[in-house]
Amino acid sequence: MGDDELFEAAAETARQEKAAAGEPLEPRVGPLPKGPPESKPYTHPAAGWGAAKAVTEFLVDEREVVVGSLEMLKMNQENSGGFDCPGCAWPDTKDLALDLCENGIKHTTWEMTGKRVTREFFARHSVTSLFDWNDHDLEAEGRLTEPMVYDPDTDHYVPIRWADAFKLFGDAVRALENPDQASYYTSGRLGNEASFLYQLMTRELGTNNQPDCANMCTEAGSRAMLDSLGTGKGTVDLKDWEAADAVFVIGINAASNAPRMLTPLAQLYRAGKKIVHINPQVEAGATRTIIPHDILAMATFHATPTSNLDIQPRSAGDMALMRGIAKATLELSERDDHAIDREFLRRHTTGFDDYRRLVEDTSWDEIVHQSGVTKEDILQAASIYRGADRSIITWGLGVNQHEHAVDTIREIINVLLLRGNIGREGAGAAPNRGHSNVQGNRTCGITNAPTREFLNKLAEVCGIDPPREDGLDVIGTVEAMDRGDIKVFVGMAGNFALALPDTRYTYAALRKVGLTVYVSTKLNRSHIVHGKRALILPCLGRTEKDVQRGGVQRLSVEDGDSMVHLSQGNQHPASPQLLSEPAIIAGLARAALPDSATPWEWYVEDYDRIRDTMSKVLYGFEDFNRRVRLPMGFRIKQPARELVFLTPSGRAEFSHARLPDVVPRDGRLVLGAMRSHDQWNTTIYTDNDRYRGIHNLRTLVFMNAEDMDERGLEEFQPTRITAYAKDGTERTLKGFLAVKHDIPRGVAAGYMPELNQLISISDYSSQSEQPLMKQLDVTIEQDA
User: Is pLDDT above 60 for 28?
Assistant: First the structure.
């Protein structure tokens, strides 16, 4: 055994010992703190000068003050040749010259960094040594510059020509015993054209193994809405937000995860409309805000409230809370003829009578017990709902990532149906998409469970014979890796290794794969935890100019309101060796399918050609190339918005699920993993969480003060957290510091990806197959 092998064996032994002792399995995620941990309430408005100061400091740290400031003027200005923000999927506003936010600027600047990861960097650092780097420092090294291949003899990545990288992939795929031995992951950052080519390649290769980031974040909402309304997408647009009388914001930290939502919330409050926030924590976005592009407010420090009512249910108590609003509304309808919309219910819904009986059979005691909310607060929320002629309900990961999330979101739809708040101006269901183009990926065919209609159309237009069996999602892919059934894995953007639950299991599973291929802009954990062979293929970022034979190209993206518009980068590429995502996909496809009749190279010469094919395959994309060039692009048809319900009954369907028991037992708590403010998905900018008042700390657990007192815990005292998985196993983490927080009793919270180590691969929803990021069954005690 050589020195490198001895070193790796010793390192792996140390990791196993750490895991057995309940210590973190991997290095720190965030950077080294700049001082001792601090926790103090955040008392300032969301956004405003706090955001401006944070952005300025970030631009200075990244040495991108001039370029970054100029690039802000082009963000979300697609009609004037700008680019779509690579952050969240909030829809763009036509009338705003600066339609941006703090996190969008950070995300863009992080991509535009002048730092570079070259072949010399990889020559200096073995992969084993890089494992012990924290994840912030891996990404902070800068942009990848050329394709690299892992050399197991030296434990280093070494340069490889693009043609040879494609050949390595093609040879590996053609050597598979069957196509389902490969899996193709997608992150939400891909443009629509790349997504369409990617799904076309995998299906021509013969598999529907297409896990994507939606499997971990928005799957529950899509399934629930499809069952209730016949569509997996929201039914509102920005004009509806302007016309709404009330908005209910459930399980969303708007100031951090959808900061541009603060603008319509402030406008609604100023207009005398009602806003209700429902979340275990009262986040900064549920207090008050100063909108940065509101010059007068910035100049006078005038903040606008963003909430009329804040309700803090227990984790996973949202379904009981919505049942309570329904119960109050139905009870009121016995003496108020306008409390429910009887004509809408008669003409457009089915199952109402059974739902009414279900609600009547659900006692107020059960609703209060399961929601963790007083009857008085529920009645107050119901009064706001009754008093509004038009209501929007929007929800996020705080709802999606629970065991009974599908039932919960269907209950949200039930409440909307009671008052006819579907299919009319100022009302509807608005799932919050927290990642740019995650919705567009699905629209363009990225899914492990495609419909028969889509596959038939794909076969007809593209001349391929796609597989008809459902493929593997994210959890299924990792389990198949562990069994040795996945020989090739492609990660199209994202950070698969760090985003998934059960860190130890996931890492071990990835290392069993024959070949891992990652298409990325920056170095991350997934390049360090790799298969027996590994490729890193560097791609253009959203801000960079994409020049093909047909000239400068533009990609399209779809926002959370189903608007499709163009995005064009303006920056010079970080390296002349970078390829666009469509070009990389075409290179991989041609290498794996040398005899394919699909014109891969022809497609890449001019993306209009891809769009022409998409217009023939995808519902709602007719006349794609013309319509996407219209001001603000075009909106994909939403049948439910027109009161056309593509359900088996042809009507909106009430659901009839009984309330689940979500109250923790035997001194246990429900732990939720979430992002900090200074973080975007797995990318950590600093160890601060400004809006929650945290500085220089990420390995923490937020707790109710009484829960801490009951366990004899003091502020910043180290804890021992033990999670009890569905499969009967236990996982323990030591050393996470207890922090007092305004959070309901029985509920605790901390940051992902640090807490992912506690989530078993078996801890996923039986309704959506999503990991239970917000509903871990844990005990927390003093760390002896």
Answer: yes
